[in-house]
Amino acid sequence: MIIILTFALTTILNAVLSEDAEFCQRHGFDSTLLECETCGIVEGVTSSSALTDICHRCCNTFEIVKAKKAVFSYDFQRISAELAEFIQNEAESIVNLHIRPSRGTVATLTLLDDKGRDIESFPVNEWNSKDIKDFLKDKLEK
What is the pTM of this model? Predict the structure, then answer.
């Protein structure tokens, strides 16, 4: 009995969610990507309360998790001159960025949580210093 009830509730919920997604798409919104902050912008550029109401119906609040620390691992012989200059002249100014020379390593940025566990790693050998600074500004807790 419980299995049947669970299945029925799941089916109804999926139908409602699917209907909501279709509603949003019909009105020009993608509910899987629309952040509720964006609805504030919509309110500022339109006088249509109906449009802003639809926006709020379709939006989501996404939790943005920032890393506590980042580690830049690299092999000095395998990085570009620009990355070498970044390490020597700019990296120290970025709070919670730790530089780790490592022989044979492709330049990599690793984001860590508050317990020092890897969240995600990114090969950055082809990045320039602006890319790295912008990325860390978005991803690294201050």
Answer: 0.57
